[in-house]
Design a protein that fits this description.
The protein is of the alpha+beta class and 376 residues long. The chain has 18 helices and eleven strands. It is elongated, with a radius of gyration of 28 Å.
């Protein structure tokens, strides 16, 4: 007669984590042999394997994970996958390949997500196998881990993607390309950068503006922003793409200025420039107490949101810069107020013909400090 397991008995399973090492192993083996699925599933849901396993027991745990991977119930097999990364390195590749050979797509995807935990010398081979999988999902998932292989092996994986019959894979791999790898991309996709090059060379500030104007309000929420074009009395000269005016409150301006003047901090973060919207000139209007008029330089490039929306290159490197800026502002005790990807702007180096140099990483700036406050 099959013994019925009461739900309250399952609540005791997590206590295995607090047992002595030898008892942990014994109890886990016992519970994984239970014929009741709820018991077996509770084991893999409850145990903290990273803390549970003493170094001397690592080898013994391999058999437990394999038992889970071989369980007749799919929920057990899927639960066991997440523990592969805690096993000795010598066992991980074998078990990842075992999961890849399963018919269950969830098992295959779970195995793909473990590539960063495979021994470094095996990652390229594993990614190559996933890139030839029958599933579109697996192929697209696998390219995310090309960054986990040694630099000398990247080229062959990029080549496999760039020459794939899968158009989605050929498109997606563009986002992984580094500056030095652009020739490899362009050799297979000569027009790959045409659309994003146009995006890289323009600011969206003047998108809905007439060909000529002197000054006009920019349509945005929050504080007032004024776009400038023709210089009064000098129509042949223009401020377009050069400077704009922001009207903000004094409190926000002081936080913005503190971020802009923190050159030493930004240098310590790895920047060779100040990644904050540049302040050119400041004045205090007599008719608007508590406000400041700031003339700031236009950063002629797209926001990160628009760039990523067009599958722009260097997303990982750009995200790293963004995280450094966020961390820097936190260290300064400045809360930006609306630091979404629309308020991070890219600036590409320009060539002699004023074309954006896409073979160089762009600079990244945080802009629009009209809601900034100090947290100090």
């Amino acid at each position: 007669m099959k013994r019925t397991v009461n739900w309250w008995q399952l609540l005791y399973i997590p206590l295995i984590n607090y047992a002595a090492p030898d008892d942990q192993l014994r109890l886990t083996k016992l519970l994984l042999a239970n014929e009741d699925l709820s018991v077996r599933a509770s084991v893999f849901r409850a145990i903290d394997l990273d803390r549970l396993v003493e170094p001397q027991l690592k080898e013994s745990i391999v058999a437990l994970v394999e038992r889970g991977l071989n369980d007749p119930e799919a929920v057990m097999r899927r639960s066991a996958i997440k523990f592969i990364k805690f096993l000795p390195e010598s066992e991980r590749t074998r078990l990842i390949k075992k999961c890849l050979a399963e018919d269950d797509l969830s098992m295959k995807r779970g195995a793909c997500l473990l590539i960063p935990w495979a021994p470094e010398q095996d990652r390229t081979r594993l990614i190559r196998e996933f890139l030839t999988a029958d599933s579109d999902l697996l192929r697209l998932e696998a390219i995310n881990f090309i960054s986990c292989v040694p630099d000398e092996e990247r080229a062959e994986l990029l080549e496999q993607c760039l020459t794939s019959k899968d158009w989605a894979l050929r498109l997606a791999v563009r986002t992984l390309v580094r500056p030095a790898e652009l020739p490899q991309l362009l050799a297979h996709q000569p027009n790959a950068l045409d659309e994003i090059k146009d995006l890289a060379e323009k600011t969206p500030l003047y998108k809905n503006q007439p060909a000529k104007f002197e000054r006009t309000k920019f349509d945005k929420s929050g504080s007032e922003t004024i776009l400038l074009d023709e210089v009064p009395g000098q129509p042949e000269n223009s401020f377009r793409d050069r400077v704009i005016i922001r009207q903000i409150n004094m409190t926000s301006y002081l936080s913005w200025r503190r971020a802009f003047e923190a050159a030493d901090l930004w240098k310590s973060k790895g920047f060779d420039y100040v990644p904050i919207e540049p302040i050119v000139k400041v004045s205090i209007p007599e008719d608007k107490p508590g406000e400041v008029t700031v003339i700031t330089r236009v950063i002629k490039g797209p926001c990160v949101d628009a760039w990523n929306g067009k599958e722009g290159i260097y997303p990982s490197e750009i995200n790293d810069l963004k995280e450094k800026i966020i961390a820097g502002l936190e260290e300064l005790g400045i809360e930006h107020g609306h630091l979404h990807e629309g308020n991070f702007v890219l600036l590409f180096e320009r060539g002699a013909d004023d074309e954006a140099r896409l073979d160089h990483l762009p600079r990244l700036y945080a802009i629009d400090f009209d809601q900034a406050v100090s947290t100090l």
